[in-house]
Structures are given as structure tokens and as C-alpha cells.
């Protein structure tokens, strides 16, 4: 368990570092720029920590410390505000910023853009943010988006629209 937990923590730290770098390169536009960090370090000797805590963990019925206790902290850079204190639209814009930065990271590492599946992506975004989203998505390879209202895709430009009815 300690070996896998340590590997997971290391991979998570590398991913957060890579995403942070990708987010720093994002242009300023109507999208909220997120900054990310991990809330606590994972001890370097996880096996020793698990041994020391074995009694407490047995009593709790779970591991009380380790990489599973780590959270991702997201901050709205321009407002210097934690994501949980942002509006629904700002939170969605922050999340989309993370998704798009991750797609850039994957594309850079694989040499090809990933297929993006974005469910209800335009909901909660004002028209300006929707336009900024569509601009960022242009030329990214294959992007699939869903919405319950076709009007949410007004101004999308060159796209194939498929209506599904019941």
C-alpha cells in the first residue's frame, strides 16, 4: 500500500506541476485563470508513517494519513480568491481552464490532442465566456459538447451540430 501510495503522490505532484506550468502560459481573456496547489505534502517515508499509525488506523477503520487525504486547492488568480468562494459561473470557468490546460499537457506529452468530451459546457457561462471558450477550443482536434438548448452554441463558428430527440 505504501509503495502504491508513494507512486500516486509522486505522479500527482508531477501532474500539478505540469498543469501549473500550462496554466501560467494561458492567455488572459474572459476565462478565470486558476492557480492550483496541493494542500499538504505526503510524507517521504509513507511505509513508516503507516506502521506508526497502524493502531489508530485500525480503530478508525481507515488510513488516517496518506496521499488520499491530499486535496487540490484551486484559486481564482485575478480575484485572489479560493474557488469555493467564487460564483457558479466563475467556478465553471476555473474548471474549464483546468480541463483545457490538462488537454494541452496531454497533447504536448503525446504529440496529439486528446478528444474532449464536454457535457453541458456552455451552461452557466455568459455569452462572452462562451465566445472565449469556443475560441479556445478552435483547432484543438475533436471536441464533443452537449447542451439542452441549441442557443448555447450560438456563435460557435464552424462546427457540426447534431440534434438528438426523443
UniProtKB/TrEMBL annotation:
Protein name: DNA replication and repair protein RecF
Record localization: Cytoplasm
General function of this protein: The RecF protein is involved in DNA metabolism; it is required for DNA replication and normal SOS inducibility. RecF binds preferentially to single-stranded, linear DNA. It also seems to bind ATP.
The UniProt record lists the keyword Flavoprotein: no
InterPro entries, alphabetized: DNA-binding_RecF, DNA-binding_RecF_CS, P-loop_NTPase, RecF_2
Key word DNA-binding present: yes
Gene3D superfamilies in UniProt: RecF/RecN/SMC, N-terminal domain
Assigned protein family: Belongs to the RecF family.
Protein's organism: Sphingomonas astaxanthinifaciens DSM 22298
PROSITE patterns registered for this protein in UniProt: RECF_2
Keywords recorded for this protein, A-Z: ATP-binding, Cytoplasm, DNA damage, DNA repair, DNA replication, DNA-binding, Nucleotide-binding, SOS response
SUPFAM superfamilies registered for this protein in UniProt: P-loop containing nucleoside triphosphate hydrolases
Signal peptide stretch: none
Predominant location: cytoplasm
Amino acid at each position: 500500500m505504501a509503495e502504491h501510495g508513494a507512486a500516486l503522490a509522486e505522479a500527482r505532484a508531477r501532474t500539478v506541476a505540469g498543469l501549473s506550468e500550462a496554466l501560467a502560459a494561458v492567455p488572459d481573456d474572459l476565462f478565470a485563470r486558476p492557480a492550483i496547489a496541493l494542500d499538504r505534502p505526503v510524507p517521504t517515508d509513507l511505509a513508516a508513517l503507516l506502521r506508526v499509525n497502524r493502531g489508530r488506523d485500525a480503530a478508525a477503520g481507515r488510513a488516517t494519513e496518506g496521499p488520499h487525504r491530499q486535496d487540490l486547492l484551486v484559486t481564482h488568480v485575478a480575484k485572489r480568491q479560493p474557488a469555493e468562494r467564487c460564483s457558479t459561473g466563475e467556478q465553471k470557468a476555473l474548471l474549464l481552464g483546468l480541463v483545457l490546460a490538462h488537454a494541452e499537457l496531454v497533447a504536448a506529452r503525446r504529440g496529439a490532442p486528446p478528444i474532449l468530451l464536454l457535457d453541458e459546457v456552455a451552461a452557466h457561462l455568459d455569452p462572452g465566456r462562451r465566445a472565449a471558450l469556443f475560441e479556445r477550443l478552435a483547432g484543438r482536434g475533436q471536441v464533443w459538447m452537449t447542451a439542452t438548448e441549441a442557443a448555447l452554441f450560438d456563435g460557435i463558428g464552424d462546427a457540426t451540430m447534431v440534434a438528438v430527440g426523443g
